[in-house]
């Protein structure tokens, strides 16, 4: 299986399964007497998708190394912090791009008047909306779900659903960029820029271009297969050269900050990752960009 222009999926297939995989990791990291994060709905969503391996991960029934739990905890907290800092600074419009099984619109303590837009492919968005509604879980902000492909004219879909380009916005694109062709990534960042009033912030992953060469995607896939996943990440990623998101955003006038993985780990009291998926991707980490 490989990627094609306009390909689609649900939460058990292709790129959609990666959303279930990270939700399973969040469910796992939310377990136990001293959990690393608290995502109270990840479990429910992964059970509803029903892929046996991910259900087993979410239930803590597989042998997932501590490092993998730490990875998802660091990642989750980074994006949580960007959004809660923006809310504290007065931003009331949030856009979660490629929201997958992200439950931030339900679990973060949003100030009154906050609107959270979630964008993902239609069947992904519809699934999460339905499962949480059926379970009686209600959003903690005004949630606006927009089913759209992020290679298409998503700015129009967003604006048709009430997005206000004059208001500052907090954007996150977590676990998305590598699933977009390089030119679609550039276009996505251009669109975000065009829709971002002063005071906006954007967070995404920083991918170290020096590390993302050769066989890295195959090595990542092999690692995740060793942990029981049958997702072939190397068939889902677009691995060719691409402009680093931070460089592109700097050119568009954003003030860009990169938090390397080692520092992100240390900030939460974890040792830097060693022989793991994270170590394979060099100086990668997390990026936040501000629009002044
Ligand atoms: C690794 S998951 C990350 C999900 C979520 N951000 C998280 O961290 O839990 C990748 C997500 O990107 C979405 N995605 C990838 N390419 C997309 C596209 N072209 N249009 C819409 N959604 C896309 C997938 O549907 C999936 O939900």
TrEMBL record:
Which EC class, in a word? transferase
Query: What InterPro entries has UniProt attached to this entry?
Result: Ppm1/Ppm2/Tcmp, SAM-dependent_MTases_sf, SAM_mthyl_Trfase_ML2640-like
Q: Which UniProt keywords apply?
A: Methyltransferase, S-adenosyl-L-methionine, Transferase
- NCBIfam families attached here? mthyl_TIGR00027
The entry lists its GO molecular-function terms as:
methyltransferase activity
| Function field | Exhibits S-adenosyl-L-methionine-dependent methyltransferase activity.
EC number of this enzyme: 2.1.1.-
Q: Which domain of life is it from?
A: Bacteria
What is the source species?
Answer: Mycolicibacterium chlorophenolicum
- Which GO BP annotation is one of this protein's? methylation
Q: Which named protein is this?
A: S-adenosyl-L-methionine-dependent methyltransferase
Would you identify the family this protein belongs to, as annotated?
Answer: Belongs to the UPF0677 family.
Annotated Pfam families:
LCM (PF04072)
């Amino acid at each position: 299986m490989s990627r094609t222009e306009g390909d689609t999926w649900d939460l058990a297939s292709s790129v959609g399964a990666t959303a279930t995989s990270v939700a399973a990791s969040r469910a796992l990291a939310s377990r136990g007497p001293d959990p690393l994060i608290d995502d109270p709905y990840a479990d429910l969503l992964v059970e509803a998708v029903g892929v046996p391996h991910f259900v087993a991960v979410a239930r803590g029934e597989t042998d997932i190394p501590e490092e993998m739990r730490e990875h998802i905890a660091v990642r989750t907290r980074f994006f949580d912090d960007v959004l809660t800092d923006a809310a504290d600074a007065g931003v009331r419009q949030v856009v979660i791009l490629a929201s997958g099984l992200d439950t931030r619109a339900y679990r973060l303590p949003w100030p009154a008047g906050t609107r959270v837009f979630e964008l993902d492919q239609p069947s992904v968005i519809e699934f999460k909306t339905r499962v949480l509604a059926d379970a009686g879980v209600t959003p903690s902000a005004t949630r606006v779900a927009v089913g759209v492909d992020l290679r298409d004219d998503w700015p129009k879909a967003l604006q048709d659903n009430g997005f206000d380009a004059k208001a500052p916005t907090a954007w996150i694109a977590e676990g998305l960029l590598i699933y977009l062709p390089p030119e679609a990534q550039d276009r996505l960042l251009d669109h975000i820029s065009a829709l971002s009033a002063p005071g906006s912030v954007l967070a995404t992953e920083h991918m170290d271009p020096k590390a993302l060469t050769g066989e890295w995607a195959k090595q990542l896939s092999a690692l995740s297969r060793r942990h029981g996943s049958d997702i072939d990440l190397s068939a889902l990623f677009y691995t060719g050269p691409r402009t680093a998101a931070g460089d592109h955003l700097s050119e568009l006038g954003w003030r860009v900050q990169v938090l390397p993985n080692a520092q992100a780990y240390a900030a939460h009291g974890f040792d830097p990752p060693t022989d793991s998926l994270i170590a394979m991707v060099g100086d990668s980490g997390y990026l936040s960009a501000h629009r002044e």
